[in-house]
Here is the input.
Amino acid sequence: MPRTVVAISLVLAMGAAAGAAGSALHHSVQGGAPIVIGAVYPTGGGQGPGGTEEFRGAAMAAEYANHAGGWQGRPIELHLEHADSWDAAPFAVERLANRGITVVVGSYGSTISRPAAEMASRLGLVFWETGAVGQLGMAASSPLVFRFAPTGESLGRAAVAFVREQLAPRLRVRRRLRYTVAYVDDVYGRAVAGGAQEEIRTSGLILAAALPYALPGADYVDLAGRIAQARTDVLVVAAYLDDAVAMRRALVLAKVPLLAGIGTSSSYCHMVFGEILGPDAVGLFASDKPDGDVLRTDALSADAVAALQWVRQEYRRRYGQGVSAPVLEGFAGGLALFRYVLPNAQTLTPEAVARAAGQIRLPPGALPNGSGLFFAPSGHSDAGANLNATSVIWEWVRPKTRAVVWPPAFSTHPIVVR
Here is the structure.
């Protein structure tokens, strides 16, 4: 696929969906040379489908922002540099920098996000992460790196907190539950596992075992045996799709008597996970971001509702699909930058954009994925992370059927205890 420039301007027809958005699109770009924002996403390889969806969401956010005036009356364009693997990411960022671009959005995948953020930080560019949740290494301390999506640590903490506060009382087990954390040993898995283990520790719960495994080549039969030997009640999993499915199959085959299982964003929440496992997925939970097609709107602001309705209708019209979590994260994360941060930057220097991002305050529900904006300041343990990011708990309530069960503001189905 060739390198792509996505030019967003008023000449793009909005069609019938624009009418549905109503007053949200009440301004227009008046003209002037466009400003160009860089984009780094995978569009091929294993992460290509999700990366493509997240980029589409970000591109549609630029289009939507242009109908609200763009940046100082100038249209916003996205210039995409493909990064289908971790080693391609730094070069993609470098090519954007060579074009004079000062702000870069990305990147869907945690293994791509870290090298992209580190290169952007090294070159003095703003890096705006829309969807990845994994650890960012040295870039995490950079004042130019911002993460819109919830962090892996926060998803891991939310998984344990949900089991502790909502699920455990429903299980009616008198003894203290034993928690095991099984995780892929990379930047994504370590982030989620670290958050889960920290929540277990600070809550005074029992950590039965922490079980990292390497990809490729993990022995899932052995892993299931170790989970059983730890006398695990609650299993927290940070995995990708194939290894999560293989692990679950090994656990079912070994008849490991778990009371609860919960995974996170790269596996348990995917529709394919439930489609492959069928009945063996029922009763499992996932701590992740919401999908646009099922997100309840009663907890959103009027502006967020209008934007969500527009992207739902327009995305289906263009691509014949619903708004998945990557599409919604790209759209909401892009909108946060294009419509709320950039208008408060007098120039597009990295320092001006970073200053505007650090000053923005939007409450939860202000953006179309349910999030707000409040970036942790320098010196904070989560510096650059969006402390008002939204996540939800999914449950596979029936074969091939999942629903949001927590928090109440976004739930579409009650928690089912089996």
